[in-house]
Amino acid sequence: MILAEDSTLLREGLIRLLAEEGHDVVAAVGTAPELIKATEEHRPDVVVTDVRMPPDHKDDGMRAALEIRERWPEVSVLVLSQYVENRYATELITSTGGKVGYLLKDRVAQVDEFLEALDRVAAGGAAFDPEVVRRLLTRTTHVDPLETLTAREKAVLELMAQGLTNARISAQLHISQSAAEKHINAIFDKLGLSGSTGLSRRVMAVVRYLGS
């Protein structure tokens, strides 16, 4: 096993914990480049890495994990993070072949859960923190109403934002005024703008558009 963690205190604590549980830590490194180099040298059965690591202290550890997945697919990877990085978490979760896990660092304090996840990943399975999955599901199931508009409706809304009247919009798009009004009503419906609020639906639609 290779452990990648830039916090010396946490790294040493994890080394001791893993050794006590019978895991052989062949290398413990503090930077993403060292992780890649150590993996190439030792070809471990599993890599445990933090997301934020030197040299950039951003997502270096995660990018190293994805590189390892690509270059050495036989190596299992367990990523630890203090936060959910949506883009990379999604890439890991949707990757094929198992041998991957993503846990929030708070889960490490729950030693039994951490070790169970590690064993599962090392055995070729997958282990994802419930909070990570919940946040990703919340993110992916929320659809921006603006994204539901057709290309024509988006064009109409753009002209509305420019202050054009229905007559000017129909002339600009070479459609009838009734067709323009139909598109505008469809926009109101898709954006959930009712006429019962006392506010101008046209203004509210434009505000939504400009705020996107």
From TrEMBL:
PROSITE patterns: HTH_LUXR_2, RESPONSE_REGULATORY. SMART domains: HTH_LUXR (SM00421), REC (SM00448). Residues 142-209 form the HTH luxR-type domain. The modification 4-aspartylphosphate is found at D50. InterPro entries: CheY-like_superfamily, NreC/VraR/RcsB-like_REC, Sig_transdc_resp-reg_C-effctor, Sig_transdc_resp-reg_receiver, Tscrpt_reg_LuxR_C, WalR-like. Pfam families: GerE, Response_reg. Keywords: DNA-binding, Phosphoprotein, Transcription, Transcription regulation. GO terms for molecular function: DNA binding. SUPFAM superfamilies: C-terminal effector domain of the bipartite response regulators, CheY-like. The keyword RNA-binding does not apply. Residues 1-120 form the Response regulatory domain. This is DNA-binding response regulator. It comes from Lentzea cavernae.
